[in-house]
Structure formats: C-alpha cells, structure tokens
Input
Amino acid sequence: MKKILNIICAFIVVGGFTACESFLDDHTPQATLSDEQVKVPENAEAMAVSAYAIFTSAEDINSSFSMWNFDVRSDDAYKGGNGTSDGDVFHQLEVQQGVLTTNWNINDMWVRLYKCISRVNSAIALLNESNYNMKEQRLAEMKFLRAYGHFLLKRLYKNIPFVTNENLTYEQYNELSNTEYSNNEGWEVIIDDLMDAFNTLPETQAEKGRPTKASAAAFLAKVYLYKAYRQDDENSNQVTSINQQDLEKVIEFTNPNLYEQHYDLESDIHNNFRPEEQYENGVESIWAIQYSRNDGSTYGNLNWSYGLIPPNIPGATDGGCDFYKPSQNLVNAYRTGADGLPLMDTFNNKDYDMTTDNADPRLFLTVGIPGLPYMFNKNFMMEKTAIWSRSNGLYGYNVTLKQNVDPALIGTYLIKGSYWASSMNRIVFRYADVLLERAEAYAQLGQTDQAIKIVNRLRTRAASSTQMIGNYPSLYGVKFYIANYKGSYTKEETIKIVKMERRLELGMECERFFDLVRWGEAATVLNKYFAEERDNCAIYNGAHFTANKDEYLPIPFEQISASNGHYTQNIGNW
Output
C-alpha cells in the first residue's frame, strides 16, 4: 500500500526546463520528453509518483519535514544532543541568540522545500499536456502537495515567493517576489490550491499515501485557522485581529459529516505512534507520509529524518544522538489537580513528582521519564545517568516517545544505517487535531459549550489510553487522574482550556511553536518559560525571545543575494 512513495523516478523535465532554477540547484536526473511522450499516461503517472517521493527523499536528519528541528524553539522541548555545540545552529534557535541569515540550516530547509514544489510543478506541467484518464484527480493530488510545501515554508519564513504557475519562464522565475502577497493573501494562495483539491479528490484512495477529500478538508481547516489570526501589519508579527469569517470556514471544514464515515479517534492515542502494519493508516490518520521496509531496496523507504532522536542505549541503540528531549515544563503541564483538570498557570510552581502528583495518562505516552520503562519495555528502565542523556543531564533525562520505537523491534521496524531509522508513518493530519481546531474556532466564536464538549471527548479518550501503561500505578506508583470539564465557562476561560488541551494532546508533535506564533503569544510564553526553566536547563541563562523578529526565520542570505533585489528581508534587523 506504500508503493506510491517508494518509487524514485527520474526528474522528467518538460521542454528541458527545470522548475525553480532561479533559486534551486536540483541535480536530479533529467530527461526531456517529446510532444508525443508528454501525452503518454505512463509518463504522467511516473511524474506524479516522483512528486510524492521527494517528500521523503528530500528531507534528512537536520531538515525534517516534521519540523522537530525547529520545534526546539518551543516550550515543549530541549534541543538535546551532546551539548550546546552539538548542532550549534539549532542551539542558537532554541535560545534565540546569534541566529544568522548565513546559518546553513536556515537556507537548507528553504532549498529542500522548494525542490519539492519544483518536482510537483513539473508533474503538473506534464499532467496538463497528457491524455491520462486520471488526469484531473492527479492534478488535484499535486495541488494538495504544492499547498503542503508552501504551507511548511510560510509557517517558517512568513514572506515567501509562491510558485503556482508551472509554466513560468526562467526570466519570470527570477522576477518572483517574496512580498507579492500580504500575509493574508499568501494564505489565500494556499487555499486556492486546496479548494481545487477538495472539489476533485475522492472520499477514499486505494493507495494510502494519496490524499482524500477529507485530507483536503483537514488541511483547509488548518490553513483557515492560521489565516484567522491576522498578522498583516508589515512592520509587526503581532495578531491585529481574529477574523470571524475565517473561523466559520474552520467550522465548515471540520464538519463531522466530512469525516465520520472513514475517520474517528483511535481507542488509545498510542495507536497513532506504533510502527506495526496493523496500526499504520489507522482510523485517526487522515493523511500521513508513508514510510516502509522490505520493499526491495537496501533499507526500504525508511524515515531517516528522526535519526538524531533515539537515545544512546548501550547494547541497543548504540549511536543514538539523544536530540529533541521533552522539557520539564511540558512534563509539569500534565499534572492534574484534585478535580482531575490541568493546573493551568500554576503547573510550573513545582516540578512533577511521580510518587505524589496526579497526572494525565498522556504524559506517559508522550514522555519517557526516569524510573519508568523506555518505550514500555521493562528491559530498558530509564535512569538519571549518562546513558539517558548524552549531555550528562544538561538537557535533563526525559526522552520523547512519539517518534521512537521499542528497541525490541531493532532489525524489523527500527533499522541502523548511518543513523537510526524506522518505517513508522508520520501522520500529518490526524482527527484529534481536526477536533481541536473545531473546538478552537467554537471558542473564539463564543460557542463555549460546543468547544468544551469536544475537549471532553478528547479527555475521555485520554482516560482510556492505558493499553501500554495500565500497570504503571501498581508497578511504579504513578497516579493517573484525568476528568472532564463540568459547568459553564466564559469565552476567555474556554479559549484558555482549548489551548491547554491542544498542548496536552499534541505534545512533541511539532505544533507547539507554530501555535504560539499564530496566537501572538510566543514572546510572552517563551520569555516566561526561559525564566522558569533556568534552574532545570542552564542553557537558558542568556535566552530571550524578541517580539517582531523571532516569530519567523530570516530569509536566507543566499536567497536574498540571488534574488536580484526581488526579495525583502523579514522584519527585526537581521
């Protein structure tokens, strides 16, 4: 079922022209097609498959399209690794100090994502000229992928050039501007592609890597939610207003009628993060990047982009690099009070104590904590030793669970190459996220009862997500306690509740930093976090988030230099 992303086709170039040549250096093999060859259905299908494939082949350990490398800017995670000089450019992002437009990681992600868009546009150009009977559906799929590439870029850089005309000449590419559209108009460009996809895509696909109508709906809901928090003052990254019409679009594209026939919540949240085939593409997975093993190649189509994350366990994950470690702040957020609800603003007054404090069960499915088994395997008990922290405790001893795989599965679902890799899919849009977006829109529209009802649905699922941890209270003394919200809440209280639930449900799924930016809360939340975390993680002694600068990456120096004056640097005096 994953073959669609396993085939790496030659980069077929229509008329000898490679898309995005003005700001890319794509050395993928090329072959120019004749007019007759262009119309052959097999060539069109091969080019479409090639466009899918690049979304796995173009990412790597330092530029993961999951964005974990860039989520280290949030209060969910520490960079980890061997110390501040190990991946120093990501350390600079984490503490928001010393970030330069010439840093290699700033340019690397830009180039990789535009290569993806280039490949998609080449597929669109070929499909437009073909006689393929699947032409319209494949074009819809390609527009979905193009929207995905632009979306990832826009969240990172804000002001980007949009490459939506696959027939631009070389000279026209060199004239593209990254400020042609306002922030709001940029979201509209992405929406235009997604609406074409939504109106054409089928409800189901035989090959799971292909998006469906529900995939496009989930994507539209996310884009409209970003768009709702208007940031159109060109001299500021602050939220100037929250648009009601955009929120209503979120309600429209999260309508249960679009999903309920094929999608639902898993009975246990952990099912979304298991590599075994029986759990992949489950009921909660609306669209996922497909990775695979045993497909005839040396390593299969494995996910190498998490290669730096596994801890270094002697005799098991030797060579694990121990990056992307859950913060103490995130752990504390899962504490619950006597009423079974989050402690909200008071959660960081003291650090979570496993022997005395109540906790949301999702904590133990998100974070590996000393005193508990790593990846639920009692053969690998976590401790406060250098085994569980390459930095000897500088970044603490916690380990992320959602990206990792049980060491018992080494050789099957966990493979050692240059780095560690697994065949576990990465879910891009899962139904829980759709529900949270619907709850957020309801809360902002003042429909508080509807929002709380959705939050309680997720909390009820969380309470029953104990298939892997049901014996933790008896074996390790932990205390599960989670309850639903009761009574009535004001609009402001409900918004706060939804935002907290979003953090708890999506912890370590690389959404947190982008959520803080779109809410306009990044500077307030992160500077408070830096102050509170200095005792837990000394790297934050000099950390400071500068509003109207650090919300977005700078436009890379290399791209500015090559743009012939058509690119404008982001605000903030980079």
